[in-house]
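stage 2 :: seqdesign
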């Protein structure tokens, strides 16, 4: 298979390129990425010179560039997105452009290039806050922040190309993902790298929000299984069951790094914070998917990677990231409070 992987220089996209070229060594990958603040050529540096791999620096909203990259490809997996909720609250415009208009451009190009398999990588956030139980794929979509609303718009648009034009589109809705190469704006790399620097761990609200953290290798395996075995037009949740709140997450990270609990700080909450996500992934399991990592293993492996790869994240944290960090956290940290001992 020759696969166009868009958003390939980001966290999950780069892990997916690695997954494909390891698990399917006869496959070819065309990796396309705009290289926004979140895209990093270092994430894919090991493939430079590999004849099975070709990188294209382009925007998924650029129809000509996308058409050229897609020529000769059998499949398309789209990871390209503006992906961070906090940034979407500050500045939604780029989210609508890439996460909705970008999908239209990709789908139009796929129509003209006879692509056989297409996966639009979406998120469990499209279900919104799930107070009890687990969302199945038929649950109501109720996104509550500009990021998740744009992702819902993008996946619905992609699926409309299945019903309207018979384009073989599938959608995955993945849970919170952790592992190597995650940009240090998401909670786990923020907490790990801050703890390593003995900086405060900023916990939103009371730290009671729940997520299901999944290792990126398990997420990539799920997406790849859908690409190769999913039924066109179908939606697949990709998630693990284990629930962790933010204080427990921070506590586990501090214990792994042997840092004091006093680094945890409760700060003003995220606007529109979804306090719980939960997925029923039995449809994907019926295709043969099972997560390999328990939460503790996934977290320990992730922490270890950041400990061993300081040369990857230190330049990011000292660059333009600082301005974002100040904007999102400085005032809130100035008014923060400690987590009471339990
Ligand atoms: P990321 O922010 O690390 O990577 C996104 C990549 O897309 C970057 O390399 C960026 O340069 C690229 N990109 C952005 N705009 C682009 C454009 N217009 N054209 C081409 N490339 C562009 O994100 P991630 O965490 O790797 O997420 C990848 C996908 O998975 C996203 O679609 C996200 O919605 C989805 N997802 C993420 C998670 C998670 O926990 N991280 C969970 C479920 C689903
Ligand atoms: O659920 C899938 C989604 O997971 C993906 O679609 C998104 O791309 C990805 O960013 C992620 O979104 P979340 O908003 O769940 O992840 P984030 O890491 O931003 O936050 C996880 C939890 O931690 C959430 O309850 C908010 C909290 N948090 C986050 C940050 C960044 C904090 O308490 N402090 C922080 O500094």
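stage 2 :: out
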């Amino acid at each position: 298979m020759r696969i166009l992987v868009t958003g390939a220089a980001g966290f999950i996209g780069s892990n997916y390129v690695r997954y494909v070229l390891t698990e399917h060594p006869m496959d070819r990958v065309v990796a396309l990425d705009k290289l926004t603040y979140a895209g990093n050529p270092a994430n894919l540096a090991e493939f430079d010179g590999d004849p099975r791999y070709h990188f294209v620096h382009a925007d998924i909203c650029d129809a000509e560039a996308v058409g050229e990259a897609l020529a000769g490809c059998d499949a398309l997996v789209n990871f390209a997105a503006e992906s961070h909720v906090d940034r979407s609250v500050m500045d939604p415009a780029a989210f609508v452009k890439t996460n909705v208009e970008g999908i239209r451009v990709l789908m139009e190009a796929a129509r003209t290039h006879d692509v056989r398999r297409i996966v639009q990588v979406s998120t469990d956030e499209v279900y919104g806050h799930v107070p009890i139980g687990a969302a199945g794929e038929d649950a109501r979509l109720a996104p509550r922040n500009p990021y998740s609303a744009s992702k819902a718009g993008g996946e619905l648009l992609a699926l409309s190309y299945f019903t309207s034009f018979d384009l073989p589109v599938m959608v995955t809705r993945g849970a919170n993902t952790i592992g190597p190469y995650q940009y240090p704006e998401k909670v786990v790399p923020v907490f790990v790298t801050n703890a390593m620097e003995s900086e405060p761990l900023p916990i939103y609200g009371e730290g009671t929000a729940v997520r299901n953290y999944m290792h990126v290798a398990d997420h990539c395996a799920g997406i790849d299984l859908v690409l190769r075995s999913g039924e066109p037009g179908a939606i697949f949740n990709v998630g693990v069951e284990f629930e962790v709140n933010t204080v427990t997450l921070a506590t586990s990270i501090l214990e792994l790094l042997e840092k004091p609990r006093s680094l945890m700080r409760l700060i003003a909450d995220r606007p529109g914070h979804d306090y719980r996500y939960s997925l029923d992934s039995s449809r994907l399991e019926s295709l043969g998917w099972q997560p390999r990592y328990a939460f503790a293993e996934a977290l320990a492996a992730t922490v270890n990677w950041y400990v061993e790869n300081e040369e990857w994240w230190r330049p990011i944290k000292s660059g333009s990231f600082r301005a974002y960090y100040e904007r999102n956290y400085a005032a809130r940290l100035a008014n923060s409070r400690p987590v009471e001992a339990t």
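stage 3 :: structure notes
- The chain has a mean pLDDT of 98.
- The first helix runs from residue 11 to 23.
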